[in-house]
Amino acid sequence: TFIMPIYNFSAGPAVLPKEVLQQAAAEMLDWQGSGMSVMEMSHRGKEFMSILAAAQHDFRELFAVPDNYKLLFMQGGAIAENAIVPLNLLGRGGRAQPATSDYINTGSWSTKSLKEARRYGNVNVAASSEDSHFAQIPERDSWQLSKDPAYVHLCTNETIDGVEYQFTPDVAAETNNAPLVADMSSHILSRVVDVSKYGVIYGGAQKNIGPAGLTLVVVREDLLGHALPACPSAFNWKIVADNDSMYNTPPTYAIYIAGLVFQWLKQQGGVAAMEQRNIAKATLLYDYLDSSDFYRTKIASNCRSRMNVPFFLADDALNDAFLSGAKERGLLQLKGHKSVGGMRASIYNAMPLEGVQALVAYLQEFEKQRG
Ligand code: PLP
């Protein structure tokens, strides 16, 4: 009998490779003969410590993290990091309080980040594409950076709006070497990143890495130890680093699943190989959308996200029919974010090329029927 493949185009949380879910299911009750589920293990016991060490090692290798950066496994998600970033960096360089930080506003997530930062200091919105409904990334030449901000923050992939930086901005010269801080939640490990260009990279795990509950932070060592006195200990990067991410009980099961995803990614050839696949997937989808008048995308072609592809039917009245037809064909969760409308296809690492091919075939079929 033919079993229809299911392709999940959800923006998150967590779309994971089938092989990883199968392995997790197989060892759910008894991890490698230990007689325990990973959930039941002491986080300081040798079994979990080996899981943690492997996950840290594999992430550092996959993401090519230089030796002078710490990798932290935290909790609270990227939204908590929106506060944790200013709490850890506004004290940098002995700045008088409230210090200033610069933000580039390219969509819903960077807007959230800068609003949170206003609770702790002055925020200079150095550039914003809000006037163009976040359909592009403001040209680097137009950024009005501060002379000496505590840091410069950006969101390198806007999950809701569908814009992604296709360049790494250099801000050092104008900002007295302010560190670049990036929210990479929704495209981390989907493409090769030169970590050395950033001071801090953070992200919730629940797109390309694993289940919600784990937050990754990669921070350059010289940026540790500048936290404001009010910074909670569990959110103080230096304390977390000094305790090897074990200051508080870490999200052990989420770390374990993330570790399985890292192993899977290595089997796939690593991040560079994954990036080539992600380019192929995104190109296939955008090329079809561009070739058709029945569907539209609103994002400038030089900053389209390879991970999150918002698109619209020319006739909104067909949205429900489109979605129910998609579901019948095993193409799930294509409805767009409520703030943007239309459709959104999220095509993270775990989405195979076949899934995008199935989506494009359905786009064609639906257009033929209704166009
Ligand atoms: N930043 C980006 C780019 C996101 O896609 C998300 C979505 O989950 C968040 C921040 C919020 O992360 P969390 O819900 O893990 O706090």
TrEMBL record:
Residues 6-359 form the Aminotransferase class V domain. InterPro entries: Aminotrans_V_dom, Aminotrans_V_PyrdxlP_BS, Pser_aminoTfrase, PyrdxlP-dep_Trfase, PyrdxlP-dep_Trfase_major, PyrdxlP-dep_Trfase_small. Pyridoxal 5'-phosphate binds at residues 109, 159, 183, 206, 248-249. Its main location: cytoplasm. Pathway: Amino-acid biosynthesis; L-serine biosynthesis; L-serine from 3-phospho-D-glycerate: step 2/3; Cofactor biosynthesis; pyridoxine 5'-phosphate biosynthesis; pyridoxine 5'-phosphate from D-erythrose 4-phosphate: step 3/5. It is found in: Cytoplasm. Its EC number is 2.6.1.52. GO terms for biological process: L-serine biosynthetic process; pyridoxine biosynthetic process. Pfam families: Aminotran_5. The keyword Transferase applies. Binds 1 pyridoxal phosphate per subunit. Its cofactor is pyridoxal 5'-phosphate. PROSITE patterns: AA_TRANSFER_CLASS_5 (PS00595). L-glutamate binds at residue 44. GO terms for molecular function: O-phospho-L-serine:2-oxoglutarate aminotransferase activity; pyridoxal phosphate binding. The keyword Cytoplasm applies. Keywords: Amino-acid biosynthesis, Aminotransferase, Cytoplasm, Pyridoxal phosphate, Pyridoxine biosynthesis, Serine biosynthesis, Transferase. Coiled coil: none annotated. HAMAP family: SerC_aminotrans_5 (MF_00160). Homodimer. Belongs to the class-V pyridoxal-phosphate-dependent aminotransferase family. SerC subfamily. Catalyzes the reversible conversion of 3-phosphohydroxypyruvate to phosphoserine and of 3-hydroxy-2-oxo-4-phosphonooxybutanoate to phosphohydroxythreonine. PANTHER family: PHOSPHOSERINE AMINOTRANSFERASE. This is Phosphoserine aminotransferase. It comes from Collimonas fungivorans (strain Ter331).
